[in-house]
Write a structure and sequence with these properties.
alpha/beta; Rossmann fold; seven-stranded mixed β-sheet
């Protein structure tokens, strides 16, 4: 029996490595999703190079011409997402705080990956903060996006030990390896729990 594949759009702002990990996972015949749009807000995003190598449509809707009007920018994003029939949104290093327009439209159908073991260290500089706190472990979390940043229901987590020799870059690199493994698994688990 054919696998029902949910239509997923991936939003990113930077190098796009989690976007690439998701797209690679979705290439498997039995994976329950297919990527329909790779969308960035930055024309200089490194992930656009990776996106160009994919067969998935990629677009940039630069936030800067909107001059701080987040709702107008998100309306443009929403139009692009509706155009491709996106059912689920995966934020993969999308570095914009979202308004209720986008979050509300995809309520319960938008995921984010965050580089900490939430509820620890929401926001930025998570690796520095974990090291400074003397934590023994760190990691990443996939969660459902809500109106409150990094506080939505958790879907999955992965841990790494914090080594005595770690600096933020070394720790970030080890966490990123786990992100690439965790996000595709978490998305599949999330989809399995959705109503048909």
């Amino acid at each position: 029996m054919a696998c029902l594949k949910r239509r997923v759009a991936i939003l990113f702002s930077g190098r796009g490595s989690n976007m690439e990990a998701l797209v690679a996972a979705m290439a498997a015949p039995d994976y329950p999703a297919t990527p329909v749009l790779l969308l960035t807000n930055r024309p200089d995003a490194g992930g656009l190079h990776g996106a160009a190598a994919q067969t998935v449509p990629a677009r940039c809707i630069d936030h800067r011409p909107f001059r701080g009007d987040r709702a107008a920018h998100e309306a443009a994003l929403l139009a692009a997402l509706r155009e491709v029939g996106a059912e689920i949104i995966c934020l993969a290093g999308y570095m914009r705080i979202l308004t209720p327009l986008l979050v509300g439209t995809f309520a319960g159908r938008m995921l984010n990956i965050h580089p900490s073991l939430l509820p620890l260290y929401p926001g930025l500089h998570t690796h520095e903060r974990a090291i400074a706190a003397g934590d023994a472990r760190h990691g990443c979390t996939v969660h459902v996006v809500t109106d409150v940043m990094d506080e939505g229901p958790m879907v999955a987590q992965a841990e790494v030990p914090i080594l005595p020799s770690d600096d933020p870059d070394a720790l970030a690199a080890r966490v990123l390896v786990q992100e690439h493994l965790l996000y595709p698994r978490a998305l599949a688990t999330f989809i399995e729990g959705l109503q048909p």
